[in-house]
Amino acid sequence: MPDLPASIVDARRLLPSVDRLLRHPLLQAAVERYGHKLSLRMVRDELASAREGATLEALSEEALARGVLERLSRWSRPRARAVFNLTGTVIHTNLGRALLSEPAIEALGRVARAPVALEYDLEDGGRGDRDTLVEALLCELTGAEAATVVNNNAAAVVLTLGALGAGREAIVSRGELIEIGGAFRMPDIMAAAGCRLREVGTTNRTHPRDYRDAINQETGLLVKVHASNYAIEGFTSTLDEREMAEIAHAAGLPLVVDLGSGALIDLAAFGLPHEALPRDAILDGADVVTFSGDKLLGGPQAGIIVGRRDCIERIKRHPLKRALRLDKLVLAALEATLRHYRDDDHPERTLPTLRLLCRDEDSIRATGERLLARLGDDLDARFEGFNFELAACMSQLGSGSLPVDRLPSHALVWRPRAARREERERALRRLEAQMRGLGRPVIGRLKEGALWLDLRCLEEGDEAAFIDQLIRPAGTEETR
User: Fold this and answer.
1) d(CA 180, CA 93)
2) Spatial distance between the Cα atoms of 373 and 59, rounded to a whole number of angstroms
3) Which has the closest alpha carbon to 264: 429, 80, 134?
4) pTM
5) What is the pLDDT of residue 311?
6) Is 12 helix (H, G, I), strand (E, B) or coil?
């Protein structure tokens, strides 16, 4: 260890001991709140940091104690923190997708606190099947004969292909060889499931004869994949589920339809673009339909598989089914979500994600006007060097749902005043980081040289908390 100046050595000697700092009055309540073990660790870390950065003037014990409090606050902060999603993407994969309804949240708590009849038949006292918790609801809502559930739609596709087509060819249109999220690519999924991909048609046009000509003794099934995260326009041609079902059944093959998002009600009735429904695919002759529980359905992450009873039974017997099954928490939340569709007169109001998607432009603009009226000059005091305005913008559904459709909205816009472009960009980066550092981080989007906070997902009940942390002096944000 190199020789240190005497001033630094003296400063280190002035630092309190671990026990002495731990007994500091400022830390007594912290020890009660966070526990002795964690508090002791943070005291040691703070003193170690002080020794490394010791200068002529040693830190006071009070300053050290406050440093320990800051460490405790940061260390105990949960990683899965609530944020304000003001990105303009309602079903945001990186921000957790769908919001659960209060009945779904209550169901989570209920089954978390007590043993539940998960795989136990209360009528005859024997072993049960956990799928029965939601199967009847899914069959009623989709018109299918049977249903099963797994942990997400990618798993539903892999399991279905593996159970119905492993070792054989799966015929798919070239225009439906999708990629979602970089890790879900239909050719790779088919390979993982043990199917041999057989591409037919072209990127923009596939005809009935393409499927008929491709069917042979090695064919296991036909697959139709919903274009959930892209759109092909112009000179196009594709088959609907009814046409494909006729071709598949004439050859004695099953038709599998992957709908992706999986809405259970016609969104067009609420001013949104139409999305394909599982019930329609079943009516058109699909033997198996897969879709998500946490996108347009508005529930927890789940992959839902509905269809013909014999196909579902084969899928449930596949060895991967146990590895991909849902736990009691997700099943309880999914059941509560499905009950909204069966029992509620207006599920578009009681399911939070659908409610946000259905918000009208006037309501969102009114939110922005209330915010600007209440914030007043506080924004100028807290965020120097920016102009603020309310501006029209367009939201999107997100998570691959209806990718080309947009929803009219309004946003609070932070625009830097600096003259030089480099200064404006630095100011925006600082502002974005400042927003992320708030007690409940605010996540917006940068475009057109400004920070846009799309207000579609800021409901009236959250306005007070949003305003409070924007006007609170810097450094006083809540961290829990």
Assistant:
1) 11
2) 44
3) 134
4) 0.88
5) 97
6) helix
